Amino acid sequence: MSASSDTGGKPVVTRFAPSPTGFLHIGGARTALFNLLYARHHGGKFLLRIEDTDRARSTQPAIDAILDGMRWLGLDWDGDEVFQFARADRHAAVAHEMVEKGAAYRCYLTQDELAAMRAEAEAAKKPLRIRSPWRDKVPNEDGKPFVVRLKAPTEGATTIRDLVQGEVTVQNAEIDDLVLLRSDGTPTYMLAVVVDDHDMGVTHVIRGDDHLNNAFRQLPIYRAMGWPEPVYAHIPLIHGSDGAKLSKRHGALGVDAYRDEMGILPEALDNYLLRLGWGHGDDEIISREQAIEWFDLDAVGKSPSRFDLKKLENLNGQYIRAAEDDRLAALVAARMGFELSDSQRDLLRRSMGELKPRAANLLELSDGAAFLFRTRPLELDEAAKALLEGDARTLLARIHAALDAAESWDTEALETAVRAVAEDAGVKLGAVAQPLRAALVGRKTSPGIFDVLVLLGREESLGRIADQIGVPA
Q1: What gap in Å lies between CA 17 and CA 192, rounded to an integer?
Q2: Could you list the active site residues?
């Protein structure tokens, strides 16, 4: 176990804590992956908490999308997921305990008084730092609304030894008295996350560096309660390929879009996310087993990584070529839009060896396989129609006759027959293969033409050619 996992002999416990206000974002998926790998590398636990305290924005479909996305990516958490809202009473009890300890206080500032403080800060062009006059008063305001505020330290500085960012120091004067309980008694995020992390036994908080400032606001809560402080690791955010903040135009979509709309395999997306900000030498293709063995936070960079959709597709193509044919056939069959018969599924499986080297994603693989199940007569695209102009159909008729006379229907015999037609006509093989491809597939591109003939079989192949030359099949 490396020094970065040192928690005084306690096993490593990490967590992923998404807010269910939308899909599982690509950045969130990487954070979950890093938490999982760190825990597994150190023989610890990886937990999942759904931070659903924002009741107006949290939805069940969003929760379902997050859980579905994590399962699809193989981000398997230990135990049951924890729902933050269900623990609101526990959060509130901690806030009240902090008041009793003198680490928090009831604040009776009105909205008008807060607005005046905000206006004063804006006029001075300074950030708003709440220092309530109620901080050191003994309240005697029975019946009036109040919030519970943290009594943050005002002198000295707080230093965090972050496993990614290094040593970071903030002056305590910059930390305000944040609200722990709202006037309706409900806990805020800042309180809830600390209480939950403590109660769940989280030893390492691994999250985006946009939360780094939150760590300085949350540490006083740990210290007020006398709880062990977690080890922090704040990961740089993902940017677009142009260096700008990641947005939808860069590919900042939910992981379900990569699966459903882009045809990305989960292991390819995992591998790509792993390499966004972390590396192991020159290794590009990294299995989950290797990732668990190699991953540690000392190899996470401090600079934002750049999301490149073309690199993801290139990596996905490599995973498609390595995938088992049965699995790919099942994935493609689900995209066909109709129920395949057993014989059609078998045909699809047999075609994978020829189709998958040409595909960068499941969409291209499905599109490439579509010719196998097209109904006759084929509707040709414009490029295929052009290949059958002039004398092409006369040549195609000679091909039909040669193939019809072939004694066996294998690639060697079929190539011999087609080459003989080309030699007899005094043309190159391509001049024969292109109109044949147009007749068989209905487009200009396809796998190797002799493989197409074998996959379609004698009867279907001869029938498709016959449709284009106007003779009975």
Answers
A1: 11
A2: 248
